Amino acid sequence: MTRSRLTPEREGELFGAVLDLLREVGYDALTMDAIAARTRSSKATLYRQWGGKPELVAKALRELSPHNSSQVDTGSLRGDFHAMVCRGDDAEMARDTALLRGLFQAIHTHPDLHRALREQLVEPDTGELQTVVRRAVERGEIREDNPAKDFLPHMLLGVFFAREVVDVRPPDIEFLRQYVDAVVLPALEA
Protein backbone atom coordinates (compact mmCIF):
# COMPACT_ATOMS: atom_id res chain seq x y z
CA MET A 1 0.00 0.00 0.00
CA THR A 2 1.14 3.54 -0.75
CA ARG A 3 2.25 5.76 2.14
CA SER A 4 -0.14 8.53 2.90
CA ARG A 5 0.79 11.97 1.64
CA LEU A 6 -1.92 13.51 3.75
CA THR A 7 -0.99 15.72 6.65
CA PRO A 8 -1.64 14.21 10.07
CA GLU A 9 -4.38 16.80 10.58
CA ARG A 10 -6.12 15.87 7.32
CA GLU A 11 -5.77 12.18 8.10
CA GLY A 12 -7.33 12.78 11.53
CA GLU A 13 -10.24 14.67 9.96
CA LEU A 14 -10.75 11.85 7.47
CA PHE A 15 -10.66 9.16 10.16
CA GLY A 16 -13.09 11.15 12.30
CA ALA A 17 -15.49 11.44 9.36
CA VAL A 18 -15.26 7.70 8.70
CA LEU A 19 -16.19 6.92 12.31
CA ASP A 20 -19.01 9.49 12.28
CA LEU A 21 -20.45 7.90 9.15
CA LEU A 22 -20.03 4.46 10.65
CA ARG A 23 -22.01 5.54 13.72
CA GLU A 24 -24.71 7.05 11.52
CA VAL A 25 -25.28 4.21 9.06
CA GLY A 26 -23.48 1.10 10.35
CA TYR A 27 -20.85 -0.96 8.61
CA ASP A 28 -23.09 -2.63 6.03
CA ALA A 29 -24.48 0.68 4.71
CA LEU A 30 -21.12 2.46 4.81
CA THR A 31 -19.73 2.93 1.31
CA MET A 32 -16.50 4.28 -0.06
CA ASP A 33 -18.61 6.69 -2.14
CA ALA A 34 -20.16 8.09 1.04
CA ILE A 35 -16.74 8.38 2.69
CA ALA A 36 -15.33 10.15 -0.36
CA ALA A 37 -18.25 12.59 -0.42
CA ARG A 38 -18.10 13.30 3.32
CA THR A 39 -14.36 13.81 3.33
CA ARG A 40 -14.14 15.59 -0.03
CA SER A 41 -11.68 12.96 -1.23
CA SER A 42 -11.59 10.93 -4.38
CA LYS A 43 -12.62 7.32 -4.06
CA ALA A 44 -9.46 6.35 -5.95
CA THR A 45 -7.33 8.09 -3.34
CA LEU A 46 -9.10 6.26 -0.53
CA TYR A 47 -8.54 2.89 -2.21
CA ARG A 48 -4.92 3.73 -3.03
CA GLN A 49 -4.19 4.80 0.56
CA TRP A 50 -6.08 2.12 2.48
CA GLY A 51 -6.99 -0.66 0.08
CA GLY A 52 -10.68 -0.81 0.92
CA LYS A 53 -13.43 -0.17 3.41
CA PRO A 54 -12.34 -2.76 6.03
CA GLU A 55 -8.79 -1.44 6.18
CA LEU A 56 -9.92 2.19 6.28
CA VAL A 57 -12.40 1.52 9.10
CA ALA A 58 -9.83 -0.44 11.12
CA LYS A 59 -7.17 2.23 10.60
CA ALA A 60 -9.61 4.98 11.64
CA LEU A 61 -10.44 3.08 14.82
CA ARG A 62 -6.78 2.49 15.58
CA GLU A 63 -5.71 6.06 14.99
CA LEU A 64 -8.56 7.77 16.80
CA SER A 65 -8.90 5.49 19.79
CA PRO A 66 -6.90 5.91 22.95
CA HIS A 67 -4.31 3.23 22.58
CA ASN A 68 -0.72 2.30 23.19
CA SER A 69 -1.23 0.85 26.62
CA SER A 70 2.43 -0.10 26.70
CA GLN A 71 3.32 3.59 27.18
CA VAL A 72 1.24 3.73 30.37
CA ASP A 73 3.69 3.09 33.21
CA THR A 74 2.61 4.31 36.62
CA GLY A 75 4.91 1.94 38.49
CA SER A 76 2.15 -0.50 39.48
CA LEU A 77 -0.16 -2.83 37.60
CA ARG A 78 -3.22 -1.43 39.35
CA GLY A 79 -2.15 2.10 38.48
CA ASP A 80 -1.52 1.11 34.87
CA PHE A 81 -4.96 -0.49 34.49
CA HIS A 82 -6.68 2.46 36.15
CA ALA A 83 -4.81 4.88 33.87
CA MET A 84 -5.88 2.87 30.83
CA VAL A 85 -9.58 2.93 31.73
CA CYS A 86 -9.52 6.66 32.54
CA ARG A 87 -8.30 7.84 29.13
CA GLY A 88 -11.74 8.97 27.99
CA ASP A 89 -14.95 10.08 29.57
CA ASP A 90 -18.17 8.16 30.19
CA ALA A 91 -20.03 9.64 27.19
CA GLU A 92 -17.15 8.83 24.84
CA MET A 93 -16.94 5.31 26.27
CA ALA A 94 -20.68 4.70 25.70
CA ARG A 95 -20.42 5.98 22.12
CA ASP A 96 -17.35 3.88 21.36
CA THR A 97 -18.83 0.75 22.97
CA ALA A 98 -21.89 1.04 20.73
CA LEU A 99 -19.64 1.49 17.70
CA LEU A 100 -17.56 -1.56 18.57
CA ARG A 101 -20.66 -3.65 19.27
CA GLY A 102 -21.89 -2.89 15.74
CA LEU A 103 -18.53 -3.75 14.23
CA PHE A 104 -18.24 -6.99 16.15
CA GLN A 105 -21.64 -8.01 14.80
CA ALA A 106 -20.46 -7.18 11.27
CA ILE A 107 -17.36 -9.40 11.49
CA HIS A 108 -19.60 -12.47 11.33
CA THR A 109 -20.58 -11.66 7.76
CA HIS A 110 -17.47 -9.74 6.67
CA PRO A 111 -14.30 -11.81 7.11
CA ASP A 112 -12.25 -9.02 5.52
CA LEU A 113 -13.37 -6.66 8.30
CA HIS A 114 -12.54 -9.32 10.90
CA ARG A 115 -9.04 -9.66 9.46
CA ALA A 116 -8.49 -5.89 9.33
CA LEU A 117 -9.69 -5.40 12.93
CA ARG A 118 -7.44 -8.21 14.14
CA GLU A 119 -4.43 -6.73 12.36
CA GLN A 120 -5.06 -3.07 13.28
CA LEU A 121 -6.62 -3.38 16.75
CA VAL A 122 -6.64 -6.78 18.41
CA GLU A 123 -3.06 -7.86 17.76
CA PRO A 124 -1.44 -4.48 18.60
CA ASP A 125 -3.60 -4.05 21.73
CA THR A 126 -2.81 -7.59 22.87
CA GLY A 127 0.90 -6.93 22.38
CA GLU A 128 0.65 -3.69 24.37
CA LEU A 129 -1.15 -5.50 27.21
CA GLN A 130 1.62 -8.10 27.21
CA THR A 131 4.14 -5.28 27.70
CA VAL A 132 2.19 -3.96 30.70
CA VAL A 133 1.98 -7.46 32.18
CA ARG A 134 5.67 -8.17 31.50
CA ARG A 135 6.60 -5.05 33.47
CA ALA A 136 4.37 -6.22 36.33
CA VAL A 137 6.13 -9.60 36.29
CA GLU A 138 9.52 -7.85 36.35
CA ARG A 139 8.40 -5.76 39.34
CA GLY A 140 7.29 -8.95 41.12
CA GLU A 141 3.61 -7.97 41.17
CA ILE A 142 2.44 -11.12 39.39
CA ARG A 143 3.92 -14.53 38.78
CA GLU A 144 5.38 -15.36 35.39
CA ASP A 145 3.42 -18.64 35.28
CA ASN A 146 0.02 -17.17 36.18
CA PRO A 147 -2.42 -18.68 33.65
CA ALA A 148 -4.84 -15.72 33.92
CA LYS A 149 -2.34 -13.59 31.94
CA ASP A 150 -3.42 -15.37 28.76
CA PHE A 151 -7.06 -14.38 29.35
CA LEU A 152 -6.46 -10.71 30.06
CA PRO A 153 -7.62 -9.48 26.62
CA HIS A 154 -10.77 -11.57 26.97
CA MET A 155 -11.48 -10.15 30.42
CA LEU A 156 -10.94 -6.56 29.35
CA LEU A 157 -12.85 -6.76 26.08
CA GLY A 158 -15.63 -8.93 27.47
CA VAL A 159 -16.56 -6.47 30.20
CA PHE A 160 -17.64 -3.89 27.62
CA PHE A 161 -20.28 -6.20 26.17
CA ALA A 162 -21.25 -7.98 29.37
CA ARG A 163 -22.16 -4.74 31.17
CA GLU A 164 -24.75 -3.89 28.54
CA VAL A 165 -26.22 -7.39 28.55
CA VAL A 166 -26.35 -7.82 32.33
CA ASP A 167 -27.00 -4.26 33.55
CA VAL A 168 -28.55 -2.80 30.38
CA ARG A 169 -26.12 0.11 30.44
CA PRO A 170 -22.75 0.82 28.92
CA PRO A 171 -19.64 0.56 31.05
CA ASP A 172 -18.39 3.73 32.67
CA ILE A 173 -15.08 4.64 34.23
CA GLU A 174 -16.12 3.88 37.80
CA PHE A 175 -17.51 0.48 36.81
CA LEU A 176 -14.27 -0.37 34.97
CA ARG A 177 -12.15 0.67 37.96
CA GLN A 178 -14.22 -1.58 40.21
CA TYR A 179 -13.98 -4.40 37.67
CA VAL A 180 -10.20 -4.09 37.52
CA ASP A 181 -9.95 -4.17 41.33
CA ALA A 182 -12.51 -6.94 41.93
CA VAL A 183 -11.92 -9.23 38.94
CA VAL A 184 -8.79 -8.57 36.89
CA LEU A 185 -6.22 -7.99 39.64
CA PRO A 186 -7.41 -10.92 41.80
CA ALA A 187 -7.34 -13.20 38.74
CA LEU A 188 -3.74 -12.13 38.16
CA GLU A 189 -3.06 -12.51 41.88
CA ALA A 190 -1.64 -9.02 41.80
TrEMBL record:
Domain annotation HTH tetR-type: ranges: 8-68
One Pfam assignment: TetR_C_11
Positions of transmembrane segments: none
UniProt key word DNA-binding: yes
DNA-binding region positions on the chain: 31-50
InterPro entries the UniProt entry points to: Homeodomain-like_sf, HTH-type_TetR-like_transc_reg, HTH_TetR, Tet_transcr_reg_TetR-rel_C_sf, TetR_C
Protein name from the UniProt record: TetR/AcrR family transcriptional regulator
Organism: Streptomyces amakusaensis
Lineage: Bacteria, Bacillati, Actinomycetota, Actinomycetes, Kitasatosporales
